[in-house]
UniProtKB/TrEMBL annotation:
Organism this protein belongs to: Anaeramoeba ignava (Anaerobic marine amoeba)
GO biological process, one term: mRNA splicing, via spliceosome
One Pfam family here: BUD31
Subcellular location: Nucleus
Any one of the GO CC terms: spliceosomal complex
Family: Belongs to the BUD31 (G10) family.
Protein name: Protein bud31
Amino acid sequence: MSLARRRKTKPPKGWEIISDKIEEFDQKMREAESQPHQGKRKNEALWPIFQINHQRSRYIFEMYYKKKEISKELFEYCVKYKIADGPLMEKWKQPGFERLCCLQCIQTRDTTHGNCCICRVPKKDRKSQKPVQCFNCGCRGCG
């Protein structure tokens, strides 16, 4: 059962435009949540969930801001009922954060040295050229 079907309020007009894709993301999320996580670190088990949340939020963001195919009411409905990540989408509107993978990567209190996550550093500015992966969400580079 999709997120929208669990709500008591009826979705706004235009829901049928995104409902199939949201249903697909819900199915992926259920599969990611039920995957076995033995042998993985605690954060590593949550990486697929962060990635699916990012994809779903990016889809709704692009449908509203870039393609302009959904209404403001439908966009606000998705944010209100947490179908999309509102604070993350707010950051995407700011310059320099267009490709941000998750909000944990810009919170300095979650890092060991008190600065942004390694995935936020552009590849050309990294001291080491070996591939890195974010500890929080598994991102390989959103800077």
